[in-house]
Amino acid sequence: MDADPTEGYLRRAELLAELGHYDEAVAELDQPIARDPGNSEALVLLAAVELAAGRAEAGLAAARRACAADPDALPPLVEQGLALCDLRRFKEAAAVADQILAAGPDDPYAQLHGAAILGEARNGQRALDAAWHAVALEPDNARAHLVLAGIAGRLELTDLAERARGEAVRLDPKLATVSGRLRRYAPLAVGDHRVTTMAVYASAYTVAVAVLTATLHPTTPSASRGLALVFGAGGLGLLGLLAMRLPKPLRGQLHADRASAVAGYAALAGPLLILLYAWIGTPWPLVVAIAATAVAGVALVSKMRL
């Protein structure tokens, strides 16, 4: 008797979706769904692929077919809730989230995903309580802490959001740069803006000082170098002070998150290069300092697109 090829189709579809080949992934799923139109697992995966491809209507249709095929299963409800959020049908999404939470009061999967959907559809105490419960049920689940961080961040509970995100990154360092579905669960938290703001201000300061000292260099090089010494040292000290005032989870993010690390080190290079100009007197370090701010800007833009 021939083995059922369904599993192979599903795994290939998952791999193609992870690589961003969504149309090919959908094509892989055509076969198992054609063989068994009530295959809930294949329909759930189809819904997830369609959502990842930005086709929320198709994702919702697949999720509803999966719900009809297996009314008691939670994954179809999760995909349905996410699709409704993408379609901005938040009232319906919140109702689905409540259904998920009620179906699994002691199920970590239900509490995690129900809280995440409710947090996006109708954030509030109910979503926060569910996220806390998910963390209590599975304290070593990094994604549960990430969901809690996202909900707390939306509620402007800054300290809680930072602690939860820090714990998530401690449990799974790869979550320092979340993308895709995880990014919607934990949008840019309030604390993340501190890292971004620090890099932006440092870059602006570097450009202003570099332009000023470069303008003065041809006519009054001594005054230019003197200003570079004062402003370079002041900028370096201010940047160090701001960095020390960051909470420990965010300081750790500067090492774990590549984009944040590039932006941070590029911003730090600016004042150092200005001091180098004050020491050697040639304007080339000023040019490199301005280039460093461009590097920091590119890193910040890439982080925002994740």
Please specify the SSE layout and strand pairing.
Layout: H1 6-18, H2 22-35, H3 40-52, H4 56-69, H5 74-86, H6 90-103, H7 108-121, H8 125-137, H9 142-154, H10 158-171, H11 180-185, H12 190-216, H13 221-245, H14 248-256, H15 258-280, H16 284-305
Order of helices and strands: HHHHHHHHHHHHHHHH
Shape type: elongated
| Radius of gyration over all CA atoms, rounded | 25 Å
The CATH first-level class of the largest domain comes to Mainly Alpha
* Count of folded domains: 2
Overall mean pLDDT stands at 84
CATH architecture of the largest domain: Alpha Horseshoe
Instruction: Provide the CATH superfamily of the largest domain.
Output: Tetratricopeptide repeat domain
Class by SSE composition: mainly alpha
DSSP helix fraction: over 70%
Q: What is the CA–CA distance across the termini? A: 47 Å
Please give the number of β-strands: 0
In terms of per-residue confidence, which ranges show pLDDT below 50 for 5 or more consecutive residues? Answer: none
Sheet-strand content, in percent, reads under 5%
TPR repeats: 6-39
Transmembrane segments: 198-216, 228-247, 259-280, 286-302
Keywords: Membrane, Repeat, TPR repeat, Transmembrane, Transmembrane helix
Protein name: Tetratricopeptide repeat protein
